[in-house]
Amino acid sequence: MISEALRRFIEGIPLVYVASADAKGCPHLAAGNHLTVSNESLLVFENWFCPVTLHNIACNSHVAVVLSVPGSTRGYQLLGRVVKPRDDAVLEISGHKVAPSGTTLALTRFMVKVEKIMEFSTGVHFDIPIDPNCSLDLPEGG
Asked: Torsion over CA of 36, 42, 44 and 49, rounded to 10 degrees?
């Protein structure tokens, strides 16, 4: 599903956004990086995701991933499901100005099976799947 050109674009983007929702549908947006593609349909994340994101993907595996070149108003939205979450390391936070003491963050690696690829744009767009072999003529990422 993910063409070689789209894979290069995805792996070159320095920052991506992951939208998740809990079991009641309450949305949450997280930022991630170090995104890679595996087996032409899996996005592989490895990030220090916050507890809200980890809770959401544990109870509702559906996510949206947004990729765009910094400064651009166009990019891609990839919809899919988390299929393989795994904590690689755990960090206990103490004395952080924002996070409550004792908060735990996990270096998490998870895979998203891409089910739809759509254009992401501030302009007119139709939220219909695009041909994954079709390029939006975006500049290269990062």
From this structure: 130
Distance from chain centroid for Cα 15? 9
Pairing mode, if any, of strands 42-49 and 36-38?
Answer: antiparallel
What pLDDT is stored for residue 63 in this prediction? Answer: 97
Q: Are 110 and 58 in contact (CB under 8 A)?
A: no
In single-letter form, the type of residue at position 133 comes to: N
CA–CA dist 50, 71 (Å, integer): 26
Q: What's the pTM?
A: 0.80
Q: What is the pLDDT of residue 49?
A: 77
Strand partners, 29: 19
Low-confidence ranges of the chain (pLDDT < 50): 87-97, 142
